[in-house]
Design brief:
5-stranded mixed beta sheet, 17% strand, globular
Length: 326
C-alpha cells in the first residue's frame, strides 16, 4: 500500500506538470517531477483504509508492519479516518496526519468588516486603526541560528557529529516556524471571529522575495497568514476577498478618492489636498476595505467618487481658440 501511494503521488506530479505546460492549469508553471534531494531529511508514508490501520481504544495507533505506536493527540478525531500519513521532519519529530470528514457550524453574524494592510514594521494594520507589531521570530533567533550553523560547518562531512549538528539546527528552525505558525493561527482566528468580512491585498510575495527585503518578507509569512484567513472564512461562513495588487491603496485618499504621486517608504503620514491627514498604513487598509466591498457589490459600487459632468460652457468647442488650418 505504501508503494502504491508513492506511485499515486508521482502520477499526480506528472499530471500537474502536463496540465501546466498545456495551459489547463492556472497559476505558476509547475516543473517536472525530480528525484528527492539527499539533503531533504523529510520522510512520509501514507496508509489508506485498505492497509487496515486502526486507532485503538487506549489511544495508540496501530500501523501495519510497525505495530502499536503511542500518540500524543492534539485533538479528538471527529469521525473515522479514511487515511493516515506518518511524517518524519528534519528535526526527527514524527507526526500523524489523518483525513476525516467533518462539518463546521458557521459563527454568529458580526456587524464589522475589516480591511488589512500587511507590512514589515507592523505585520497587520486594520482599517479601524489597530496596528499589530511584527514579531520577527527569525530575527530574534538569528544569533542562535548563526552559532548552530557555524558549528555545523566545522563538522567533518559524513561523521556522526555532523548528523547531530544537522538535527540541532533543524530543531532550531522548526521552533521558529512553529512559533510563527502558532501566532498567526491565533491572530487569524481572532480576526475571523470578530469580523463578518475580511479584505486583504493580493501581494506578490514571490517578487518581493527577490529584493533586498527577502529575509524580512520570509520572516513575516504573509502568504501563510492570508491562506489561514481564506480557509477559516470559508469554514465559518465569513466573507474573504483580495484586492488587486496594482490597486493604489497607499496613494489614494480614502476620503475624496484623489490619487497622489508615488511616495517613498519613509513617508508614513501625508496630507491630501482636500485637507485630510492620513496615516499611510491605516489609509491603505481603509482603501482595501472599500475595494473589497466594491468587488463584492452586485450594483458595481465605485471606490472613488463618480465622475461629474462638465458644464456646457466647458464641454463645447470654442472656434476662436482652434488654430487656423485645422
Amino acid at each position: 500500500m505504501v508503494l502504491q501511494q508513492a506511485l499515486a503521488d508521482l502520477n499526480t506530479a506528472y499530471r500537474n506538470f502536463f496540465t501546466s505546460v498545456s495551459g489547463k492549469r492556472k497559476g505558476r508553471t509547475v516543473g517536472a517531477p525530480r528525484f528527492r534531494s539527499r539533503k531533504d531529511n523529510r520522510q512520509a508514508i501514507r496508509f489508506t483504509a485498505n492497509a487496515r490501520f486502526k486507532v485503538l481504544d487506549n489511544g495508540r495507533l496501530r500501523l501495519p508492519k510497525i505495530g502499536d505506536v503511542q500518540v500524543r493527540w492534539s485533538r479528538t478525531l471527529p469521525a473515522m479516518p479514511t487515511s493516515v500519513t506518518v511524517i518524519r521532519d528534519a528535526a526527527g519529530r514524527y507526526f500523524a496526519s489523518f483525513v476525516v470528514q467533518s462539518t463546521h457550524e458557521p459563527l454568529p453574524s458580526a456587524a464589522s468588516e475589516v480591511g488589512i494592510d500587511l507590512g514589515l514594521t507592523h505585520f497587520a494594520v486594520m482599517s479601524d486603526g489597530t496596528k499589530v507589531t511584527a514579531p520577527k521570530f527569525l530575527r530574534r533567533a538569528a544569533r542562535k541560528l548563526k552559532r548552530l550553523q557555524q558549528d555545523l560547518s566545522r563538522k567533518q562531512r559524513g561523521s556522526r557529529n555532523r548528523k547531530k549538528a544537522v538535527v540541532k539546527l533543524a530543531r532550531a528552525h522548526a521552533r521558529v516556524a512553529d512559533t510563527r505558525r502558532d501566532w498567526q493561527h491565533k491572530l487569524s482566528t481572532a480576526i475571523i471571529r470578530d469580523n463578518q468580512a475580511v479584505y486583504v491585498e493580493d501581494l506578490c510575495v514571490t517578487g518581493l522575495a527577490r529584493t533586498r527585503l527577502a529575509k524580512s518578507v520570509h520572516d513575516a509569512g504573509w502568504a501563510q497568514f492570508t491562506a489561514m484567513l481564506e480557509y477559516k472564512a470559508a469554514r465559518y461562513g465569513r466573507t474573504f476577498a483580495r484586492a488587486d495588487r496594482f490597486f493604489p491603496s497607499t496613494r489614494m485618499c480614502s476620503d475624496c478618492g484623489r490619487i497622489t504621486d508615488k511616495m517613498m517608504l519613509n513617508v508614513r503620514t501625508w496630507v491630501c489636498p482636500c485637507g485630510s491627514h492620513h496615516d499611510r498604513d491605516v489609509n491603505a487598509a481603509r482603501n482595501i476595505r472599500a475595494a473589497g466591498r466594491a468587488d463584492l457589490n452586485d450594483r458595481g459600487a465605485q471606490i472613488r467618487p463618480a465622475s461629474v459632468p462638465a458644464p456646457r460652457s466647458e464641454a463645447v468647442t470654442h472656434r476662436e481658440l482652434v488654430p487656423s488650418g485645422t
